[in-house]
Amino acid sequence: MAQLDTREKLAILADAAKYDASCASSGTAKRSSEGKAKGIGSTEGMGICHAYAPDGRCISLLKILLTNSCIFDCHYCINRKSSNVRRARFTAQEVVQLTLAFYRRNYIEGLFLSSGIIRSSNYTMEQIVEVARSLREDHQFRGYIHLKTIPDADPELIAQAGLHADRVSINVELPTTRGLARLAPEKSAPRIEGAMRDMKTKIEDTADARKRYRSAPRFAPAGQSTQMIVGADSASDGEIVTTASRLYDRFGLRRVYYSAFSPIPDASAVLPLQRPPLMREHRLYQSDWLMRFYGFQPREVVAAAGDDGMLPLDIDPKLAWALKFREHFPVDINRAPREMLLRVPGLGTKAVGSILAARRWRTLRLDDVARLTVSVTKLRPFIVTADWRPTLLTDKVDLKARIAPKREQMELFAA
């Protein structure tokens, strides 16, 4: 490997990290170096990768790979062993100094660190852990740290990562075991899930210890997440949704991220020639929201898909479900429980909360509901208010055409 300066390494390894979507900084513990607290950095406040906290704050993270060299040859990965890409590698101390230098210039508020596998899984994991350990212990860095861990590494190394990091990620890579066996034969689904299970146990045990002993150390306070690639194999949206739900239930994940497959140079013949529509990735995120925040069961989201198991791209999954199961509508805005209001297309969690609060004091009319949404057109066939009843509108054969978003050709130089 040719000798590269830090700037050249950063250009290569930051670009190589862009394929990792699981880069969010929500849910961690609050730490600050203001006032009497000694150290540097913070997980609070406004802060080149941009993640968003639940309250809407934009948080900047240095997102890089330790190295893009790898001993594995996963077909879908641009950094695979047989790929003809320019290679680079940081030492652990180079990443530490780079993180501190970026932080002191107010460029970032934290670090997202992943890596290809070099020498062995244990050796690579040791280097990743050393970065986090040095930042925390040698430099008292209190900013956010997200580490991508390696399932094949020794469980003790992964446990050490959780002691220093706010969040850890263990990627399942692909939605199905058949897809993993075909495109990443050197990786093992049981080992990946075993590592996730161990991490969940450690997080729960530490949380329980902290309830009894204030001196107990924190362990991955922002939990663990994972990522799966969409469109590299034949898995349908229904299979992806089912896998995501199983991962949430079994391993207590904070997030499952979806990354649309992107064709890579010198691609393997087993990969598709075209990337899936980006809208497919968006629909999967919407289905994820339905399960996490709207009370939908996985089987209900799957039921919204077509006979081929794919979610429609022209309408969102909640509207698809409502059109398919019209017997549940219309919903009386003034009487329906929260769980039914959440199933009305066009009503978000905030709007439902406002409706529940307002109807304690007055009977709501259509205009009242319209003020809580972007467009009342989508709502009308599915709700009843004091002055509105859809009559036969809900059962119209062409209802989808009436309320689906209209496609519009944007003008490049429009005023």
Automatic annotation (TrEMBL):
Question: Required co-factor?
Answer: [4Fe-4S] cluster
Which ranges carry the Radical SAM core domain?
Answer: 54-297
Q: Which domain of life is it from?
A: Bacteria
Identify the InterPro entries for this entry. Aldolase_TIM, DNA_rSAM_put, Elp3/MiaA/NifB-like_rSAM, Endo/Exo/Phosphatase_dom_1, rSAM, rSAM_sf, RuvA_2-like
| Pfam families for this protein | Radical_SAM (PF04055)
- The membrane spanning regions, by residue number, are none
Entry keywords, A to Z: Iron, Iron-sulfur, Metal-binding, S-adenosyl-L-methionine
Record NCBIfam families? rSAM_link_UDG
Write down the PANTHER family for this protein, in alphabetical order.
ENDONUCLEASE/EXONUCLEASE/PHOSPHATASE FAMILY DOMAIN-CONTAINING PROTEIN 1, TYPE II SECRETION SYSTEM PROTEIN K
The molecule here is called: DNA modification/repair radical SAM protein
